[in-house]
Amino acid sequence: MSAANLVVAEDDSYLKSDIVQDMIKQLRAIDTFGSYDGWSEARIIDPVVLTKERKQQIPVIGDPDEMTLARVKAYYNSLSSLIEKKSGLMAVPMVNITHEGFGRALIMVGKLIIVDKILRDVHRWGFPSLEKMCEQTDATITKALDLIEKYKSAATD
Amino acid sequence: MSAANLVVAEDDSYLKSDIVQDMIKQLRAIDTFGSYDGWSEARIIDPVVLTKERKQQIPVIGDPDEMTLARVKAYYNSLSSLIEKKSGLMAVPMVNITHEGFGRALIMVGKLIIVDKILRDVHRWGFPSLEKMCEQTDATITKALDLIEKYKSAATD
């Protein structure tokens, strides 16, 4: 994607948020061929932002492409990592996407499921903006931490 | 596999156990081409029994074959179904096998993980005998029911 088509501004203040920073780290980690070398942070995270126009251009037939799946997994890895930092307990993500882009994402702490998300049309997985991404992530983390608090004994089993 | 090579006897008393009966039902359900038509119960469940000799003949390279994966999933479906009957709570299995036959099988009740099994060398997935299969299954179910009892509130959330 050429720089002209980016929707994330280089000075987007949400680039510095925990979730975006961690996700960029995760994406760089799986970039074994160095495709991202020399890319700005905005450019790496850019495909995660799906505007209405972008969504319309992605067909929901067949299986989602590999990079989209990698991004979904990177996101749940990051989410786990943030929950781990805040709770002090090990959080384990498990993302199961079957054919046609349907699936389920879990994050577990001990014997407790603290994030449980049904995924549909993974082809079009993304957020309307980095701001929305941070908002949703914060809400998910708050809910997860509440669950850990509520069922502490199962979470620490 | 010809009848001569079967290791499960037609009169094996464990053929009537809950887990074996349910698993045969699951396997028949996914047998869309009717390959099992006219097969005895012993013949359908037979590949699940891996004697030492059989194990040695299965290489652990590459990905496990489709039928083995289907059998692993059928087993965890059956296990969930038995736990559901005994606990009266909905049990949801999730089997995630990545490449090379490594993976993880979960069974969830509410927000609680009641079965959590790391799978390795799925190519060679099976039990030494139907008797052992029933024993291990019973032990897993007992443990699962204990966990539900212990963390009832998370299990019913």
Detailed description of the structure:
Two copies of one chain form a homodimer. Chain A is of the alpha+beta class. In chain A, 44% of the residues lie in helices and 14% in strands. Chain A is built from six helices and three strands; from the N terminus they run H-H-H-H-E-E-E-H-H. The first copy, chain A, has a three-stranded antiparallel β-sheet with strand order 1-2-3. In chain A, strand 2 and strand 3 form a beta hairpin. In chain A, helix 1 crosses helix 4 and helix 4 packs across helix 5. The longest helix of chain A is centred in the middle third of the chain and has 22 residues. Chain A starts with 17 loop residues before the first helix and ends with a helix. Chains A and B meet through strand 2 and strand 3 of A and strand 2 and strand 3 of B.
Protein chains sharing the most extensive interface: A-B, 15 and 15 residues
Q: Specify the overall morphology of chain A.
A: globular
Judged by helices, strands and strand pairing, the structural class of chain A is alpha+beta
Helix percentage of chain A: 40-55%
Strand % of chain A is: 5-15%
Q: What order do the helices and strands of chain A follow?
A: HHHHEEEHH
| Mean pLDDT value of chain A | 93
Mind telling me the C-alpha Rg of chain A? 16 Å
Low-pLDDT residue spans of chain A: none
Biggest beta-sheet profile of chain A: 3 strands, antiparallel
Biggest sheet strand order of chain A reads 1-2-3
Oligomeric organization of the protein chains: homodimer
Distance between the termini of chain A: 46 Å
Number of helices of chain A: 6
Instruction: Count every beta strand of chain A, where a strand is a DSSP E run of 2 or more residues.
Output: 3
